Amino acid sequence: MTHVPLHDDDQAREAHTGQLLLEQYKLYVQSAENVTMKLASASRFYLTVLAGLLALFSLPKDVVAAQFQEVLYAGIGLLGVVLCVVWFLNLHSYRQLNRGKYKIIHEIEQRLPAAPFRREWDVLGHGKDKTRYRPISELEQAIPVAFLLVYLALFVYYLPLALATLSTLSH
Predict the structure, then answer these.
(1) pLDDT digits 0-9 by tens, 118-149
(2) 53: closest CA among 87, 5, 4?
(3) What are the C-alpha distances in Å from 11 to residues 14, 77, 103, 113, 133?
(4) For the chain, what are the domain ranges?
(5) How does DSSP classify residue 5?
(6) Are 38 and 94 in contact (CB under 8 A)?
(7) Closest by Cα among 98, 110, 91, 83 to 32
(8) How many alpha carbons fall within 13 Å on the CB side of residue 87?
């Protein structure tokens, strides 16, 4: 097999293609980082709102009319449950989006001289060996589940009281 030298035009085109690929890689890595930042921002929002709603349970009884306290608390419990479910689904969606982005990053790395993200994932055992790496997404999803249990317990506790209060008021 004889080696055919590249013409200057071919070499320039190949260099340009490599540069474009590297720029696309950088943009895609930045895009994945942006998704992670959006996820963190969304999680701060949900955490703040859910903690604030829990603080409402500490209001003195004279702030809320006594006959409506159970109704308010049941409503807060239900709102908390809904927010926790939405938060969990958001986390799952961001996780899927980033999984897809990193799959594409790994594909681009196959055409580059080095593949740092692929190598890092290999070193970490692909998230399967928990002694080497526990995926942050697993830990992130535990937080809305913990809040969900609290809000669900509050809702279940206050719902019968709220229904009793409402039936008393209607008579």
Answers:
(1) 888 888 888 787 787 877 877 889 999 999 99
(2) 87
(3) 5, 66, 29, 17, 42
(4) 8-170
(5) P
(6) yes
(7) 98
(8) 27
